């Protein structure tokens, strides 16, 4: 399997498959493909898997595309931004809800429950995240541009709500309340920040969809009366 990312800020992942190779995605993600690629829709592992995908913002069903002959298949991002490809070699990652685009190889997708429940409810990253483990590639949608960091043991990154896309399962997520009454009331950063502590990789995004939606809402015509 080979792949390339094209499209700039409106990205698409184009995957080249050899005969017999397969790629998985959530239903409705395929943008185009060449002739000779067969699609099969399934639950991806039963009702439990379906429910897990539903609560993490993904579609209920999974599509598997298998090449009968050499060909290409493309998966386009649903929002302006970028696509990050994560290689797994027996390890696991946690990703934000709704970020899954496609995967190749022996990848297991499950619900990732935050160890710190308060962090899940108040940190903006969600009490439920997606956990990907196994061997292969995971294609994730990123809102805006992606910025990667490799945190050393004990190294911390303070992140505003909604800016975390992905982190290794070795990274600890906690919540810290913004200090100072004036900072809380007038700082415009909300009550809480997410603290990510290494070791492990993290990927941050520059334009979270909720924040972008609120900014656009300010400029929308308002109905009077």
Summarize the structure.
By secondary structure, the chain is mainly beta. It is 14% helix and 52% strand.
Largest sheet: 9 strands, antiparallel
Helix content: 10-25%
Strand tally:
16
Strand proportion, as a percent range, falls in over 45%
Going by CATH, the architecture would be 4-Layer Sandwich
Distance between the termini: 58 Å
* CA gyration radius, whole angstroms: 19 Å
Secondary-structure-derived class: mainly beta
| CATH superfamily placement | Mitochondrial biogenesis AIM24
Q: In CATH's first tier, which class applies? A: Alpha Beta
**Multimerization state:** single chain
Tertiary shape:
globular
Number of discrete domains: 1
CATH fold label:
Double-stranded beta-helix
Biggest sheet strand order reads 5-6-3-9-10-8-13-16-11
SSE order, one letter for each helix or strand: EEEEEHEEEEHEEEEEHEEH
The number of helices is 4
Mean pLDDT: 82
């Amino acid at each position: 399997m080979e792949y390339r990312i094209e499209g700039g800020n409106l990205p698409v992942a184009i995957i080249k498959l050899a005969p017999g190779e397969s790629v998985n995605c959530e239903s409705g993600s395929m943008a185009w493909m060449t002739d000779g690629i067969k699609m099969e829709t399934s639950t991806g592992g039963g009702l439990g898997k379906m429910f897990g995908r539903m609560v993490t913002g993904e579609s209920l069903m999974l599509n598997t595309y298998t090449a009968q002959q050499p060909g290409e298949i493309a998966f386009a991002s649903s929002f302006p931004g970028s696509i990050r490809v994560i290689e797994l070699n027996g390890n696991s990652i946690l990703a934000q809800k709704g970020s899954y685009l496609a995967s190749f190889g022996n990848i297991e997708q499950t619900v990732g429950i935050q160890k710190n429940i308060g962090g899940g409810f108040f940190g903006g990253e969600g009490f439920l995240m997606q956990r990907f483990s196994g061997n292969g590639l995971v294609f994730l949608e990123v809102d805006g541009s992606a910025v990667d960091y490799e945190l050393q043991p004990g190294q911390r990154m303070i992140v505003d709500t909604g800016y975390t896309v992905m982190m290794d399962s070795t990274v600890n997520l906690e919540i810290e309340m913004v200090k100072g009454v004036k900072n809380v009331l007038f700082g415009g950063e909300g009550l809480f920040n997410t603290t990510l502590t290494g070791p492990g990789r993290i990927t941050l995004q520059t334009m979270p969809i909720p924040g972008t939606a609120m900014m656009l809402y300010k400029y929308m015509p308002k109905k009077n009366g």
